[in-house]
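Minutes, project huddle
Topic: does the predicted pose make sense with iron/sulfur cluster bound?
PN asked that the exact inputs be recorded in the minutes so nobody has to dig through chat later. Recorded below.
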Amino acid sequence: MQEAMINRAKELMADGTVSRVIGWKRGEFAYDITPAVFETAEEIDSDFVCDDFTAANVSKYLIKESRKEGRILAFLKPCDTYSFNQLIKEHRIIRENVYVIGIPGGPKLDAEKLKARGITGILGVRNEKGTLHIDTVYGEETMPMFEAILGKCENCKSTKHVVYDELMGEEGEVIADSGRFDRVAELENMTAQQRFEFWREQLSKCIRCNACRNVCPACSCENCVFDNPDSGISNKAAADSFEENNFHIIRAFHVAGRCTDCGECSRVCPQNIPLHLLNRKFIKDINELYGEYQAGEDTTSRAPLTNYNADEDCEPSIVHERGAE
Ligand code: SF4
Ligand code: SF4
Ligand code: SF4
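Predicted holo structure (tokens), as shared on screen:
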């Protein structure tokens, strides 16, 4: 797939359809991948990579890139297309300035899961019948593929692209039984005290690096509340448990109804905090209270939390009623 992508990208640059390409490039090791913009065929030939580690969602970069001169080619995995659509809906990306090629998704690999088994100096990987063969500077290692999958790919909601200009590979489908709310349901079945303790244990690990906010396609505000120098909480580590909770609860409310469940926040968290569980709780609640809704599925529908329906919307008392359940 990588070779076909490189060839197509160079074709589209050569015929003037696009002037640059956003994709990924490799660092020192195979897992050391970063999103990158390529402006020449030579740069693409030398640095462009798309493999088992290219998990990063490039949609958010298109907010700025689509405002620059010329059209940009973006390779989007199925999950990335939901983020892209949501950003179109929010008028954050200029659609005509982006040429989208849909590419197959994962599952992508989590380098931390390899490192946790003592596998370092990773040069490359290949999957053979469910066994991952890992080429390292110290020789070859193996491990079961399913133990190396990135968290966000474990409960993939869709292998279908919701937007593209052209498609590479086979189109997928929405996965109705992804099981992505199973862990949320387990948390709901805990007592309030158990749940509080679970989240306190998780959120107390937060170092307020802001990586989750910075990577999040739904966190696209030009002036974020957490950067306000008058807020007293701007760009600093949480002083106490209140501030630890505060950051995450506010952010979760801000992205509620707009979070596409892309899983990027959990992927980049250096403290391995399962942020997706908080966001999925909001998605699950919205589905139950306002009807099934998938952010990013389309660019025209009204989102439940910005669409008032006097007859069908739940009343604020639902919070108390659910608490009493
Ligand atoms: S990425 Fe993790 S550690 Fe960093 S601010 Fe977010 S939750 Fe905290
Ligand atoms: S909150 Fe997390 S899962 Fe939701 S859109 Fe942002 S990065 Fe993606
Ligand atoms: S935390 Fe809130 S204010 Fe900050 S970028 Fe995200 S949505 Fe915007």
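Observations noted during the meeting:
- The first strand starts at residue 20 and ends at 26.
- The radius of gyration is 21 Å.
No decisions taken; revisit at the next huddle.
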